[in-house]
Amino acid sequence: MSWGDALAIVGGLVAGVISGTMGVGGGVVFVPFMTTGYRFTQTLAQGTSLAAIVPTAVVGGFTHIRQGNVLRDAAIWMGAGGLGGAVVGAVVAVHAPSGILARLFALFLFANAFVLVRSALADRTGKTAAP
Q: Residue 35 pLDDT > 70, yes or no?
């Protein structure tokens, strides 16, 4: 096993823990990890992340189902919509320049960070944050 393999395993472990505990997609960890750590192109990192996150999502999903933390009807509808969106998104990602994808992904991360910080601050003060 090489250092690169060991680094990939550690990255997967971190992404799995974050995904399982916080409910975020592992791509939030995987994609920046691969583009900065391994110098993958944005398209390659996104595709690799999507393939690698399947086992993590399955295990995390089944764990939450067993704990009763899943509204199955909502999950089925979101999964169906996500399936269609994934097909459209993958086609767009394959044809878009890597630099544009990287910028869009960065905007996505900043928007998520803003919403999470706002929500955390609202929870701390006892107020409910609007979406």
A: yes
Nearest-angstrom CA–CA distance, 127 and 129 = 6
- Alpha carbons 131 and 127: distance in angstroms, whole number: 13
Q: Is residue 101 part of a domain?
A: yes
Q: Which candidate, 52, 35, 33, 53, places its Cα nearest to that of 43?
A: 35
CA–CA dist 86, 84 (Å, integer) = 5
**What tokens appear for 86 in the block?**
């994934």
> Based on the structure, what is the number of domains in the chain?
1
Fill in the amino acid letter for 48: T
Alpha carbon distance 55, 76 (integer Å): 18
pLDDT digits (tens, 9 = 90+) for 90-130: 899 889 998 899 999 899 889 988 988 888 888 776 665 55
Domain with 99 in it? 3-125
